[in-house]
Amino acid sequence: MKNMEDIIVAHLHDEASIDEVRALFRWVRENPENAREFARHALLHSQLRRQLSGEHRASESLDAQGAGRPTSTELLKSETVVSSANNTSAKRWRRFSYLMAGTLAAGVLVAMSVIALRNSDKRPIVQPKQRPSAFATVAQTIDVVWGTGSFHKSDRVGGGGTLELQQGIVRLEFDSGVRVTLQGPAKFELVTLEHTKLTSGLLTASVPPRAEGFRVDTPQVEVTDLGTAFGIRIDDGTSKVSVFDGEVDVALPDSAEKRLLQEGEAASIGIGNEIETTDFDGAPFERLWPVSSGIEASTGAFRFTPPWPRRIRFVRSDNEIFVAPEGYVTTLTEPLKVNISEPGKYAREESLSPSEVSSGRMVRSFILHFHPEHDGRRRRFARTTGSIRFDRPVLGLIVLHRELAASADRFPGRRAGEALQHRQLELTGNRAGDVVALSEDRRTISLDLGAPTRFSDLVRVIVDATGDQQTESTGP
Q1: Which domains does the chain carry?
Q2: How does pLDDT run across 231-275, given as a tens digit for each residue?
Q3: In terms of pTM, does the model score above 0.70?
Q4: How far apart are alpha carbons 429 and 346 in whole angstroms?
Q5: How far is residue 476's CA from residue 466's CA, in Å, rounded to a whole number?
Q6: In terms of DSSP bridges, do strands 471-474 and 329-331 run parallel, antiparallel, or are they unpaired?
Q7: Nearest to residue 178, comparing CAs of 201, 157, 149?
């Protein structure tokens, strides 16, 4: 029998015998290297055949133009006559040859697949570069000048990401619901979803209960929350921790010393020093409170209280309207009645646009509170005005006593005296009455308040929080 290379050549030219084709088929199946060799011969044969076929057609076209030469049609007819005697046996052989060739081709494909798999096991696997998965979003930036690198609103940040601010304010929203607000100059590193580092600057963090354990390390101390709102200020090598709500653990690195700080308490920790209790002072964080609460801007008489003061009903000022966020995001399980649901300016009670915020909506609630420092007797005061702009659409305003009292238990935490009869806006339409307006884009609220004759003016603002991860509980 011919050697295998001769058999391959004979097969590709349709000249191999049945026994030779069978032998070739067995040979290919015996070894992947044999299959590779057959594939190489088949590829070369195919390329050569295409090339010669093209040259033959070009030569045939030229010969057909010469005088006295037989045309290609005549040659074809001649060949057909010569081969007619063996036509029946040739057809049978071709059918067998095509069948075997198809089977052989299938075997080659299988063999080549095996080769590829075997070779892939031998080659070193090159893994693509895995970027740390992002777990926080840049939610707001105000007057920021970046140091190294820069970020924009809606950018995602992951482990190893570092924010370095020369000045300005940035708010981050973590996928866990944690909100961190930074004031420059500051340097802040995200290590994991639960672990961060503040090297310099000012920080506030609000942590919903389900994200308890969120940790911020400074060069001097490790701060671990217990479901809280707190602030950290690094100044001249000293870390000062203030607790606005709830509790935090503060611990010295590489030390067993630890202390629990509760709402209204503060501590100062220097390099290598002990944890020293200090007087609570919220003033350094006042610029951060509105941003951390989702407020883009305010004008006029508006002033922010520390997050969720427990006794806002007793906060008084003759010329300031205090703003207080009411806890975390709440998902409504029942419709919530509001007095104003449409943009416009409202000076009379009969012109209000009452409606309901549907159940299932994720919302945040804010209290706008004006309580002058008088003793309840009628006095003359200048009108108090201002506007406040939220970073989300306002779904509705509650400005009348009945709806204020009914909604008092719908949001976690703080009371503003809603049960008292005269804690509402006085929409009388006269010069002493109050005026409230909701902008067309539903983000800005303007207040023009007359001097209250008794108690205080009160507004509850319901803001859309769809998609916000910072959910504390399901509202009643």
Answers
A1: 4-64+89-122 (no CATH), 134-285 (2.60.120.1440), 294-474 (no CATH)
A2: 999 988 899 999 988 899 999 987 778 899 998 899 999 876 788
A3: no
A4: 9
A5: 18
A6: parallel
A7: 157
Q: For residue 47, what are its two tokens?
A: 């390329």
User: What burial letters (b/e) apply to 279-305, b meaning 16+ CB within 10 Å?
Assistant: eeebeebebbbbbbbbbeebebbbbbb
pLDDT tens digits for range 64-87: 444 444 444 443 344 443 344 344
Crossing angle for the helix pair 32-65 and 87-122, to the nearest 10 degrees? 130
195-206 and 215-217 beta bridge pairing: parallel
Which has the closest alpha carbon to 305: 295, 315, 291? 315
Buried b (16+ CB within 10 A) or exposed e, 214-248: bbbbbebbbbbbbbbbbbbbbeeebbbbbbbbbbb
CA 170 – CA 161 distance, rounded (Å): 14
Q: Tokens at residue 241, please?
A: 């921790």
Nearest in space to 189 (alpha carbons), one of 159, 149, 214, 213: 159
Q: Are strands 302-304 and 321-325 parallel, antiparallel or unpaired?
A: parallel
Alpha helices in 413-464 (DSSP H): none
**What is residue 128's predicted lDDT score, i.e. its pLDDT?**
36
